[in-house]
Amino acid sequence: MSTIYLDHAATTPLAPEVISKMTHVMNNIYGNPSSIHRFGQDAKLEVDMAREEICSFLNAKPLEICFTSGGTESDNHAIIGACFANDGNHIITAPTEHKAVLNAINYLVENHGYSVSFLSISEDGTIDLNELKFLIKKETVLVSLMYVNNEIGLIHPVEEIGEICKAHNILFHTDAVQAFGKINIDLKNSAIDLLSASSHKIYGPKGAGFTYIRKGTLIDKTVHGGAQEFDMRSGTENVISISGFGEAVKRCKKILDSDFKKISELQAYFIQHIQSEITDIHINGSLENRIYNNVNISFSGCNGEAILHQLNTKGIAVSSGSACTSGSIESSHVIEALNLGSSLTNSAIRFGLGRSTTRDELDTVISSLKNIIQLFRK
Ligand SMILES: *Cc1c(COP(=O)(O)O)cnc(C)c1O
């Protein structure tokens, strides 16, 4: 059976260049980057080169990039580290953030006396910057709002958010896991203080990510030890994954425009055709401020989980946004925050398009979906 992978927001396959790079490193480079001898320095060079790729992509300085194990650790590092190192005990975020952000903040609330305010979410996922200004108080230490939402693809106006924070002397963190590698980000002239990114969402290996920490921003370390990563995150560097991450970034930089052009055309094609082929559907998330590879649709009267299983039997991989937690199905907290009512909330499917996606694949998905939805609605 041929398979169709439409879950690129969950993770991506490795780019061929990444595999070559990592194979080379696995075969030849095994020193500890902290060692002074040649073996160590060869390994250090791989880490430095990856850091350099990231810096040139983001217009950042090497000292501002701290490698971590991925997006989750970077979100925790930025949020908990910044809160502990700076005055204030109030945080502002949104209910549509990734669990890595929400649960890091929740940890601070439950265990360290912080309070949190959540922005309201409109039906298409957008936030209101006037409400953000209204929620800021003198105890506010941090605002954390993602660059691109992982479920509905919504792009937040991060520079405007950053400017508001800057004007109030508050730190701004953005989870850019779904934006980094897809959107041009220039951090030099930006109002972003802290940014998190992950390798495996951009055709790199799992187990690598970074926290960007603007020069001068105070942040506590969350891992204590041998003072690696400029003493911001101890532990022997994951040289293999970091070298692959660097290669993945290099590739993203090179084909940023062609990826955008090709995949956004597919996105428009998919949305247009699904709208004309299947009735009673609802596109979740703003159509204007949307990342080019995300399509999220509710099929009213159906169950998202059941659609996912039916597609899976046909070799098509998507995400229903809901997680099956200890036997009971919980609908996605992001879709829930849109307040669309239970019929639309329980029938949301996320399609994550990627570099390998073709029109033929999308045609197959649409015709399969048409049959499945017809069957369920009978
Ligand atoms: C995937 C993802 C994360 C978590 O990153 P990992 O590298 O898998 O830990 C955090 N935030 C967003 C928006 C994501 O999509």
Any overview of this molecule?
The protein is an alpha/beta fold. 43% of the residues lie in helices and 15% in strands. It has helices spanning 16-28, 38-58, 71-85, 99-112, 129-135, 158-167, 228-231, 239-277, 304-313, 333-337, 342-345, 359-377; strands at 4-5, 65-68, 90-93, 115-118, 140-144, 171-175, 194-198, 209-213, 281-283, 294-299, 316-317, 323-325, 328-330, 348-352. The strands form 4 sheets. It has a 7-stranded mixed β-sheet with strand order 2-8-7-6-5-3-4, with helices on both faces. Strand 12 and strand 13 (328-330) form a beta hairpin. Helix 1 runs antiparallel to helix 8 and helix 3 (71-85) runs parallel beside helix 4 (99-112). Residues 70-72, 75, 98, 100, 146, 150, 175, 177-178, 198, 200-201, 209 line the site of pyridoxal-5'-phosphate (PLP).
Ligand set: pyridoxal-5'-phosphate
Structural class by secondary-structure content: alpha/beta
Question: What sequence of helices (H) and strands (E) makes up the elements?
Answer: EHHEHEHEHEHEEEHHEEHEEEHHEH
What would you call the shape? Answer: globular
Radius of gyration: 21 Å
Which spans of ≥5 residues are poorly predicted at pLDDT below 50? none
Give the number of helices. 12
| Sheet with most strands: strand arrangement | 2-8-7-6-5-3-4
What is this entry, summarized?
The protein is α/β, with parallel strands linked by helices and 378 residues long.
Task: Show the helix and strand layout.
Blueprint: E1 4-5, H1 16-28, H2 38-58, E2 65-68, H3 71-85, E3 90-93, H4 99-112, E4 115-118, H5 129-135, E5 140-144, H6 158-167, E6 171-175, E7 194-198, E8 209-213, H7 228-231, H8 239-277, E9 281-283, E10 294-299, H9 304-313, E11 316-317, E12 323-325, E13 328-330, H10 333-337, H11 342-345, E14 348-352, H12 359-377
Parallel strand pairs: 1-11, 3-4, 3-5, 5-6, 6-7
Antiparallel strand pairs: 2-8, 7-8, 9-10, 10-14, 12-13
The protein binds pyridoxal-5'-phosphate (PLP).
